[in-house]
Amino acid sequence: MMQTLQRALRPLSQPPLPPGWNHAEMTELIGEVERRSAAVLIGVRDEQQLRMVFTVRTDHLSSHAGQVAFPGGSADPTDADALTTALRETEEEIGLNPTLVTPLGYLDCFETISGFCITPVVARIDAEARFHPAPDEVAEVFEVPLAFFVDPSNVKRYTMNFRGHRREMVEFQYEGRRIWGATAAILMNLLQRMEQP
């Protein structure tokens, strides 16, 4: 499955540029406000099977408290690029040493209701890597087999209303954890790219 995953990615030499693939929908919902740059790390551990790394945000955070997310966050002015942002934020959040990360490529940019344009960076995480969550940001780090997301029976679709607009949403339920919102949308972008010949 690693080869299928790698074929689905934008190469490291061609990082995606804004706007996000969902720009039209976000413009309808939040207008033409400037999107702030952010990046997340979609970490994959390649052992007996490919497993993706997620965090659970602590309950006391001012935004997205208790939600499942990929490690990552806002770009700093000193960050050279999205890869730098993703590695720096991941090290801050879960203590992952960047030397144990091998970047593989990118997914398409994605815009959020909160006004960010996220660049997802996909990378292989060394099997020996250990996580040390920052207790003020991350309550838990867990892994989910990529095969779980590839199985269409695990995708739950629903419609929600946001400021009078109907939005088609997806989510996944894995061992009692709800994976939804931007994280689920980014996963769907990966799955769609993996299905392309």
UniProtKB/TrEMBL annotation:
<keyword id="KW-0460">Magnesium</keyword>
<keyword id="KW-0378">Hydrolase</keyword>
<keyword id="KW-0479">Metal-binding</keyword>
<feature type="domain" description="Nudix hydrolase">
    <location>
        <begin position="35"/>
        <end position="166"/>
    </location>
</feature>
<keyword id="KW-0464">Manganese</keyword>
<dbReference type="InterPro" id="IPR000086">
    <property type="entry name" value="NUDIX_hydrolase_dom"/>
</dbReference>
<protein>
    <recommendedName>
        <fullName>Nudix hydrolase domain-containing protein</fullName>
    </recommendedName>
</protein>
<dbReference type="Pfam" id="PF00293">
    <property type="entry name" value="NUDIX"/>
</dbReference>
<feature type="region of interest" description="Disordered">
    <location>
        <begin position="1"/>
        <end position="20"/>
    </location>
</feature>
<dbReference type="InterPro" id="IPR015797">
    <property type="entry name" value="NUDIX_hydrolase-like_dom_sf"/>
</dbReference>
<dbReference type="InterPro" id="IPR045121">
    <property type="entry name" value="CoAse"/>
</dbReference>
